[in-house]
Amino acid sequence: xxEKRLPLTVIGGFLGSGKTTLVNHWLSHAGGQRLAIxxxxxxxxxxxxxxxxxxxxxxxxxxNGCVCCQIGDDLSMALISVLESxxxxxxxxxxxSGVSDPWRIAQLGRAxxxxxxxxxVVTVNADSFLAHWQDPLxxxxxxxxxxxxxxxxxxxxxxxxxxxxxxxxxxxxLIAGGVAVFETSHAQxxxxxLSGLSLPAxxxxxxxxxxxxxxxxxxxxxxSHPHHPGNxxxxxxxxxxxxxxxxxxxxxxxxxxxxxxxxxLLRLKGFVQTSxxxxxxxxxxxxxxxxxxxxxxxxxxxxxxxxxxxxxCGHLPRARLSEFFERISV
Amino acid sequence: xxxxxxxxxxxxxxNPMQPEASHVAxxxxxxxxVGSLQELASWGPYTLNEQFxxxxxxxxxxxxxxxxxxGSMWDMHYLGWFDRRDPQGKVxxxxxxxxxxxxxxxxxxxxxxxxxxxxxxxxxxxxFDPIYFGGExxxxxxxxxxxxxxxxxxxxxxxHLMNVNTVMLQLAEITAENEVxxxxxxSSGSHAGQPTGELxxxxxxxxxxxxIGTAGLLAPMTEAGVKSFASLACMQGVTTATDxxxxxxxxxxxxLEAALADDACSIRILPAFQAFHGTHGAALGAEHVxxxxxxxxxxLRYGLVKMMLxxxxxxxxxxxRWPGHFNGAPNGIWxxxxxxxxxxxxxxxxxxxxxxxxxxxDEASLAAVNAIERVLTRSPQPDHxxxxxxxxxxxxxxxxxxxxxxxxxxxxxxxxxxxxxxHYEMTMGPDxxxxxxxxxxxxxxxxALAIHSDAPVTPLGPLFTAWCAVNRITPKGRxxxxxxCISVPQALRAITLGAAWTLxxxxxxGSIECGKRADFCVLEDDPLSVEPALLKDVRVWGTVLSxxxxxxxxx
Lengths: 330, 555
Description:
The complex is a heterodimer. In chain A, 26% of the residues lie in helices and 29% in strands. Chain A is of the alpha/beta class. Chain A has two domains: 6-193, P-loop containing nucleotide triphosphate hydrolases (Rossmann fold), CATH 3.40.50.300; 199-325, Hypothetical Protein Yjia, Chain: A,domain 2. In chain A, a hairpin with a 4-residue loop joins strand 4 and strand 5. The longest helix of chain A is centred in the middle third of the chain and has 15 residues, at 162-176. Chain A starts with 5 loop residues before the first strand and ends in a 5-residue tail after the last helix. By secondary structure, chain B is of the alpha/beta class. Helices cover 31% and strands 21% of the residues of chain B. In chain B, the strands form four sheets. In chain B, strands 1, 2, 3, 4, 5, 22, 23 and 24 form an eight-stranded mixed sheet that branches. In chain B, strands 6-15-16-17-18-19-20-21 form an eight-stranded parallel sheet. In chain B, a hairpin with a 2-residue loop joins strand 23 (540-545) and strand 24 (548-551). Chain B is globular. The interface between A and B is large, with 35 and 38 residues.
């Protein structure tokens, strides 16, 4: 059985859509997580110099324990050095270049037993997307990126007219189907949407067997900071669902459910008991983010079976989750 | 003030004022004069060196687009479809069947064992290209026949794929459960669902790279590799070559400077700084290149900048204009976004540096021309000589725009031979394949022309490259675009003065005339008298670099 696997998140999106801002935002809200951030170029990372502990050419150590590495032209080698460093990291974030296909990079999250793919976040510039989309040199590249996303961050909404934002949303829906879209500005995305690490631990989130946690604010609000009404970056809300599933799940059935999760489910993680024909019951950890999912065998968790899910407020498919994991038919 | 006068059977000078001569006088590594013995003797005392009296001298050949890796590839084992010569001068026969590949691997495995190498040391090979094997794919079934104990790793010629044997799969823990999209699995048969050993793209290759580390494929440039390159160059009559992507880290510069400080190293190198993949912000990059230029010597010239827009045509990753790929494959990829390219280009351009841009597909070439036109409108720069490299699908109208902008073209004519049939049958289709590397259109439009091998993608050898441009013939006997054939003198100019122009060195090299470097390509045969169809077979004796004579290695 493998030891702890590192979640790998890919941040993709065209030039000027806010990838680096999102990386900076993540870094400054890492909250004790030790992240390895692989970026194309330090030049654009705007890290407060007070946060930089050391800068040795292609590696920058931050005072919060995170490390930024410059990819150069060899992501594999950069990733190998992350995997081999001690003490180990809590997660890896790869910032893709503005024209690369994040889905290809995301395959790296499936390549190594020491990693799992925790999501592909694609940033979109609400103000310039339609102009880029109309450029025949770029439309196929943009479509490739959007189709790869487990979450689309529709950024720079403050620069776009409301009408423009809804036009972009319509276009995205045509290209990428029902993928979740989070509207914001300055890449202010609540961390639980970006990272499984930031989801409330499933056992802790569960009270009295069943829990329905509505976080009616952004993550800042959740940490008792004041609201910023009227700012579109803070208009969105996410909600969570969790349970202690009692059934044992057929592996084939479980995998097939995870492959086509119900629309609106952004993330799901936790531990369940599984069975396969002719084998004894096992424990598996589930990690799902959009089209990315992984199932890995683990030792029996002390707290038993537990799952937590997250979605945008009003969109989380609670009934479908309960139907499958709690066998509650609706 | 020693003067040496070399008589030769013929001297092809590339100087129109005096196209041919019988003698050349050399002083201080430079050409003192070209003419008859009597004319040259009037300069005063001289030594008559008759070692080239039966040879033909040309200006030292110039490869405007290749990579030093051509030298160190030979640390691995060659499995290509075509014959190829190694730095020792040995010709390795091309392998035309999977069986031949397996036999070569079996021999290599046996010789590794005989040399006392550990049975677990991986066998790493290069140059294999499945595009020539019709639909047949290499699998573990082939490679396990070569060895069931030694890990085998075969890097494909295009750099995006590899094949490994079962031992390597096990070592890398690549199993049926691996969900990476590029891990190819048997679709039927007794092994259905098991990996075939073919690994596509970096994620699939990751676990292998993690096990074998920087052995082979990712090995850094070494002094020995540079010297192997120099000996290959000497065999091909090349005295000046680019290393047309180099990160120019401290380590890279140390290796280049040490290797090229050695007088026995028979090559002049122009490394081009890798100005893509975000190794530096453009402004920092330009500063870095300029800071290196004061360290230039005769044999090492910093100052070139390399940018990259798209992928490759035969890899279906080039950016093409309508109607796209002949076989319906989707359009390729941007390595750099056109807008980013324009911004970075402008920074390097304003720093006064010369930029070489990789554009294979015609949409990429068009994007480059559009961007450069805007940059030049905003910041005109006399004599910039920015160059499009590969430019394989550029047509006459685009060449005419390039001429107006002062852009040079360095076309990849070796493709006409190495992938000409595949371009006709798969990538471009008939008609469009005929304008692949359209040298005649470039010259007709008035574009300064060079031609290249992109070694190690294809073997270094400018006379072969010239032969491709002259004959435009494919292995299956097709002539791709008769009207794009150029003459032998035009082709010889493209591998001497033409290439020198694209490197801003035409005042110094590229022809044999007074004041220039004494760089010669020493030939046994006269390229102007042989049948044009035999240009590739002209024998090279060796070279002279800045007056120093180098005889090519022979087996």
